[in-house]
Each structure stands twice: as C-alpha cells, then as structure tokens.
Amino acid sequence: MGTVTFTFTADNGTEDAADDVTGQSQPYTVTAGNSLALVIPGGSSIVTRVNQPATVLWSSNAALMAPSKEFDYRIELYEGNYANEAALSGRKPVATYTAGKDKNSVRIGENVLSKLSNGDTPAYTVLVSMPHPNAGGEGVRLSALAWIIVQAPPATARLTPPQSIYHKDTDGAVNINWSVENTTEGAPLQPTLTITRVTEDNNTHEVASERLSGTSGSFPLPLQRVKAGNLKDTYQVVLSVENPGEESPSTDSFPLYVYDADALKVQDDKGETISALTMDNTSKVSGSLPTVTAEIMQLRQELGLIEYIGINYDEYGWNSFKDGIQWLSSNNNAISVNYKQGGLYEDIRNFSFDSYLPETKMALSGLANGSATVTATHAATVCVPTYR
Fold first, then answer.
1. Which of 262, 244, 234, 151 is nearest to 190 (CA)?
2. CA–CA separation, 266 vs 364, rounded Å?
3. Which of 233, 264, 93 lies closest to 166 in space, CA to CA?
4. Which of 47, 48, 220, 305 could form a disulfide bond with 54, CB atoms 3.0-4.6 angstroms apart?
5. Can you tell me the distance from the alpha carbon of 378 to that of 326, in angstroms, rounded to the nearest whole number?
6. How many CA within 13 A on the CB side of residue 286?
7. In angstroms, how far is CA 369 from the centroid of its own chain?
8. Which of 171, 166, 160 is nearest to 355 (CA)?
9. Are strands 45-49 and 141-151 parallel, antiparallel or unpaired?
C-alpha cells in the first residue's frame, strides 16, 4: 500500500538524453481494498511461439489482508480453450506449478506449449488459484483464468537463382527453384510465386502468380521474345510466405535479365553492320614502287593492315557494367585483336581483362596471309555474332 506516480518519457527518436521530454501522472493511492481478490489483469491472452516459454502474471491482495496466513498459489495448465472454471471440471492438467504467497508470476518452460493455436484461438487455458485465507481448508479457493495463444515461428522464403541470371530470349525454360524453411508441422503454409516481366519501355506484365504446395519445388519459366527495338526484358521473381498472426510475410526475390538473342552485331568504323571484312594491301604495291626515301617511308605506313570494329553500341541501351564484350580471334598469327590503353593499341592477349566495355572500338591488325574468325561475345549471356 502507498502512493505511486508514473513517469512518461519521449526520447524523440534519438539516443541523446538531452532532448528527452518527460511528464508525470497524478499520484495514485494504492490500498488493499475491503475484500480478498485474485485477478489476472485484463484477463488477457498470452502469446508465445510453439515450444517456447511463457510467463503467467496475476495480482492479489491476499498477502496484505491476511499477512499471518501461509499459502501457495497453484497454477494449472490445460490443453484447449475453456471459457470458465466449470468447463475444466474433471479434466487433467498437462502441467501444474506452485508459487509462494509473495509471488505474482510463474514461468512455463520450454517444450511444454507444443500445440499450435488455430488462428487467434487459444491452445491452452491456465487456472491460477489459492485457498481462501479465511476459510478452514483448501475447499474454498479464489481463482482466475488466463489463455495462451501458441503461434508457429515465422517461416522463411528461399529462392535459388539459376547459375546465371542473364539469358537470351531463345533459351529454353528457366527453372526457378524455391523452398520454405523453418516450417512447423501443423502450421498452414501459403507460399506464392509471382513473376513480373518489365520491358524497357516500363510496361509490366504479370507472367505467373502461382499458389504453391509443399515446402520445396521447381517452377519452369518459359521466356518470351523481347520486343523489336528493345535490348532486354527484366523478370522480377518473388516468393512470399504468409505467416500467422501479425507477423509480416517472408519474401525472397531475384531478377532475370533476358536479352534479344539477335541484338548484338559487329560494325566497322563507319557504323555499318558487317559479317565479313577483307584486309588487303596488294593494290598499294602493284606497278612501280617509289625510290625516294620519303615516299618509301609513307608507303610503309600505308601498307599496315589495320581496321577498326566494335559492336552496335548506339542501337541499344547497352550497360557499361553489365554488358561486357569478349573478343577473340581464331587465328592470331593472321589477324590479332587489339585494345587501346593509353595511346597505343596492343594485342588483347597481353591483358588480363575478362571483357571490354561495349562502347570500346577494337583494332584488327593483319599480320600475315590467311584468314581468321573474329568473335564478339556478350559475356553475360554468351550471345555470339561472328564474322570472317
């Protein structure tokens, strides 16, 4: 018994106590009252996870009104949802606890609350009781009820992306592997797989919205052809699992980038698409040859066989980071592919680069009589146009 004042503090969302604002309630006087009572505040339900602990709280003025009486509280745990004490008559508790007269709580340990609730329906009923201090024995008791809602732990959605998230629109179906982890037996599972296709002109199309069953599986995603004039489509793959109660859904996602298989072309230094290129300097040495030193030096420069090529960078929205290009000559003794670093072109075999920026111009150098196939490969999708 006594007087109590409550203090309320707003921290304004910061850890700095200097900007905290506090306020106090009016004083409240607490008395034992004029009648014995045992109550569970609000008769509220206790919410816990399956096989996790739960604490049952109660309040009583018995120790103040009968300080000389010795007694213990008895706490009985029943499986099921019962509205009143009479409904518990004849039923056997699954667990029983005791607490001294100076206590107001008991902890139900782990691995006791193993039955799941159906939605918000309590899975267990708790009866807290004590002998009436003014009665002659245990026959007259004060009691109160509490209820326990047992929820499953939140399930976790898991997607396993394919080995590569970059594909051509001529590829076959892509298998989307999914699973739901941390499941609880008896808990309802509601996994949903949603796949949305987003085109480069920002149009969205829902490709799939599948209610899945079980805890794992694979969904075959057929790829659609990319619209003419667009480089690629983006598929957003999302797996979501609804969790019970007020838990947020668990989600996992990843993108798929699907390219027009015919988009990549090789172009010459005039920006024209080519499939073959002839490097020939025989016309420059036919007929009479110069005898003057200056003219001989000029002819030597003109005899060098160099052509500049690249991909059709200006036709599409190639990305400098995602759309690296790999270059390769099938016969480096005849024709080498060269990259300009600083002020000089050097054979790409002298570099350790995996790929080159899509806007890069490469120099072909004719080294000897012969032919070669030069290949430009979109590194992410292995999309390959070639020319000779």
1. 244
2. 13
3. 233
4. 48
5. 6
6. 4
7. 56
8. 166
9. parallel
And the tokens for 357?
Answer: 């920026």
Q: How many residues does the chain have?
A: 388
What pLDDT score does 296 carry? Answer: 46
| β-pair type (250-259, 166-168) | parallel
Q: Which residue has the tokens 């490097």?
A: 279
Q: Give a three-class secondary structure readout of 54-88.
A: EEEECEECHHHHCCCCCCEEEEEEEECCCCCHHHH
- Tell me how far apart the alpha carbons of residues 165 and 258 are, in angstroms, rounded to a whole number: 8
Q: How far is it, in rounded angstroms, from Cα 77 to Cα 79?
A: 7
Q: Which of 152, 113, 111, 106 is nearest to 129 (CA)?
A: 106
Q: Which two tokens stand for residue 158?
A: 């898991």
* Site of tokens 């056997």: 92
72-106 tens-digit pLDDT: 999 999 999 999 999 999 999 999 999 998 899 99
Which residues does residue 180 pair with via DSSP β-bridges, in sequence order?
Answer: 157
pLDDT tens, 114-142? 999 988 899 999 999 998 877 766 678 88
DSSP for 116-160 reads PPBTTB-SEEEEEEEE-TTSSSTTSEEEEEEEEEEEPPPPEEEEE
Residue with tokens 């708790």: 126
Q: Which residues of 297-327 are buried (b: 16+ CB within 10 A; e: fewer)?
A: eeeeeeeeeebebbbbbeebebeeeebbbbb
Q: Which amino acid is at 48?
A: T
Helix (H) or strand (E) run with residue 296 in it:
helix 293-303
Q: Which residues contact 344 (CB under 8 A, 6 or more apart)?
A: none
Report the distance separating Cα 116 and Cα 124, nearest Å: 9
Tokens linked to 189: 């599972």
